[in-house]
Model the fold of this input.
Amino acid sequence: MGTDLEKVLISKAEIDAKLVELAAEIDRDYAGKDLLIVGVLKGAVMVMADLARALSSEVTMDWMAVSSYGAGTKSSGVVRILKDLDTDIAGRDVLVVEDIIDSGLTLSWLISNLGSRGPASLEVCTLLRKPEAAKVEIDVKYTGFDIPNEFVVGYGLDYAEKYRNLPFVGTLAPHVYGG
Ligand code: IMP
Ligand code: MG
Done:
């Protein structure tokens, strides 16, 4: 896997198994409902694709792209919309699908933005959650894995737009990001 990566934190098999579990819960919780799943670009592409295929329910999918100002490995909490939803979510059951929650700043901004549009319900599913996320008050209904406070890449997650296509989640060697 090259010298940029330090170790595999979560294997593809572990991710697949977890998404099947989460999908079963989501199927159960939204039975009889008309669920809209919203993926947050670009990181959530892999989770959306695999989670959607693990669901038995009929769902519709939409995408949003947001950007936290600033580069590097820390979120600033200042968010702007790069691409908005195509769907009017008023009265809809909406499930936001995220790759990772770190500080939670991006997500809490997103939740208040989407919440103001009057959805019937608004919940969050994230594949990964870091310890910092526990400090902000966002109710995350579905969490895949709680991970240590390390910078991870793969399965949609990038460092400087690289490594998104790795089929697993791994940690970067410190020399790559100057750590
Ligand atoms: P937050 O606002 O700090 O919760 O994080 C917002 C975004 O930062 C996430 O949606 C990711 O795109 C990115 N991010 C946070 N932690 C990591 C990481 O460990 N690896 C790659 N991207 C991350
Ligand atoms: Mg993200």
